[in-house]
Amino acid sequence: MAIQNTFIMVKPDGVRRGLVGEVISRFERKGLTLEKIRKLDIDEDLARHHYAEHVEKPFFPDLLEFITSGPVVAMQWSGESAVSVCRDLMGATDPKAASPGTIRGDFGLEVTENLVHGSDGIESAERELDIFFG
Question: Which residues are catalytic?
Answer without folding.
Answer: 117
